[in-house]
Specification:
The protein folds into 2 domains: about 70 residues, Ribosomal Protein S8, Chain: A, domain 1 (2-Layer Sandwich), CATH 3.30.1370; about 100 residues, 2-Layer Sandwich (Ribosomal Protein S8, Chain: A, domain 1). Helix content is about 55%, strand content about 20%. The chain has 8 helices and 6 strands, in the order βααββααβααββαα. The strands form 2 sheets. Strands 1-3-2 form a 3-stranded antiparallel beta sheet. It has a 3-stranded antiparallel beta sheet with strand order 4-6-5. Helix 6 packs parallel to helix 8.
Length: about 170
C-alpha cells in the first residue's frame, strides 16, 4: 500500500458516496474507509489522487455517474469558492442564483456550450469536464460571479466554441 490520505465531505453526501465505494475501489485499486469525521483513502499515489477527486466531486454535489468521469485521463474537476466574490450571505445567495439562472437556464446553457457539468452546492461552484473545455466553463462562471451580463457570457462562449470548431476543422 503506497499512501493514505484523508478528505472531508458534507455529512449529507456520505450516503451518496457509499453507493459507489465498491466501484471506485475496484476501478482504482484503492481502499476507502468512511470514519465519523473523515474519509480515508489508501493505495498507490496516482489512484489515491484520482479517488480523492471523485470523492470531492461527490461531496460538492455531483451525481456519482458524473463524478466517475474523473476516471478518464482527460477530465478534471475545478472548484470555485463563491465567497471570493461575495462578502455577505445575501451576496452569496444572489451569486448562486446568477450562476444557476432563471429555471436553471444559465447553468444548462454553459454546460451545453462547454460539454462540462456544473454543480452549485453550498459556497462553491464545481465543474467537471474535458481538460480542453474546463477552463472555458470556469471563465464563464467567474464572469457571472464578477457581475457580467448573462448575454455577454453567452456571446463569449459562443465565440470561443466557434473558434474551437474552426481550429478543429483546420487540423
Amino acid at each position: 500500500m503506497g499512501m493514505q490520505q484523508a478528505i472531508r465531505i458534507p455529512k449529507a453526501r456520505v450516503k451518496v458516496l457509499r453507493e459507489v465505494i465498491d466501484e471506485i475501489e475496484s476501478k482504482l485499486s484503492v481502499k476507502i474507509e468512511i470514519r465519523p469525521d473523515e474519509i480515508l483513502v489508501g493505495g498507490e499515489s496516482l489512484d489515491v489522487w484520482i479517488a480523492l477527486k471523485i470523492i470531492k466531486a461527490i461531496g460538492r454535489g455531483f451525481d456519482p455517474s458524473v463524478a466517475l468521469k474523473l476516471l478518464k485521463e482527460d477530465y478534471d474537476l475545478v472548484v470555485i469558492d463563491i465567497m471570493r466574490f461575495a462578502n455577505t450571505k445575501n451576496a452569496l445567495i444572489r451569486l448562486r442564483g446568477r450562476v444557476i439562472g432563471e429555471k436553471g437556464r444559465a447553468k444548462k446553457y454553459i454546460e451545453q456550450l462547454t460539454d462540462c457539468h456544473i454543480q452549485v452546492y453550498g459556497k462553491t461552484v464545481s465543474i467537471i469536464g474535458p481538460l480542453d473545455k474546463l477552463d472555458l466553463a470556469r471563465q464563464a462562471v467567474e464572469m457571472l460571479l464578477n457581475g457580467a451580463k448573462h448575454s455577454t457570457v453567452y456571446r463569449f462562449l459562443e465565440r470561443e466554441k466557434a473558434k474551437m470548431r474552426w481550429e478543429a476543422w483546420l487540423q
